[in-house]
Amino acid sequence: MSGIKIIFFDLDGTLADSRQDITDAVNRTREALGIEGGKTLSEVHSYVGGGLEETIRRALADDGINACVKNTKCLKKALVLFRDFYRAHPVAGTKLYPFVAETLENLNGITKAVLTNKDHDIAVDVLKGLGILDCFTDIIGGNDEKYRKPSPKGIKQILRKHKFSPDSAIIVGDMDIDIITGRAA
Fold first, then answer.
1. Active-site residues: which are they?
2. 112 plus 163 within the same structural domain
3. Overall domain count for the chain
4. What string of DSSP letters covers 10-65?
5. pTM of the predicted protein model
6. Which residue among 69, 88, 107 closes a domain?
7. Closest CA to 119 of 104, 139, 103, 105
């Protein structure tokens, strides 16, 4: 890893498997809105990656429930409900992937940051609940639209903060959006 000074990690699907908690929050949101039938773990997983609003839009529109998706007030309510449900149980079913903790510990001398489209405060709660929050110097969440992937602004801000060049950084993620973000930086 010669020349690498910082590694940006995606959270969901890279450091941790959070599909169950996200699925539970989606289904509780649907139930609170009076929508019958839950979504499976694999269905919800196919909706994630573009930020919370996109996930909720897809989770509702997938059943043809476009009335809420097209209604700004209903969509805002769905987002509030999801956040409330998810904040209440951010790590009930979330697990670190094997060897993540050991890998982070062994990356001595390399700055580590999290770049996620998950809301910042929820990301912090998840990292804390998994016992790895202290491994990271910086956490960029997706609730600030200008930093939401695929925008490179979050990476660039952290690189400036630490006075690192882009060629001294790598991004580790599980989705195309992570590759696109890294290339844009």
1. 10
2. yes
3. 2
4. -SBTTTEE-HHHHHHHHHHHHHHTT--SPPPHHHHHHH-SS-HHHHHHHHHHTTT-
5. 0.91
6. 88
7. 139
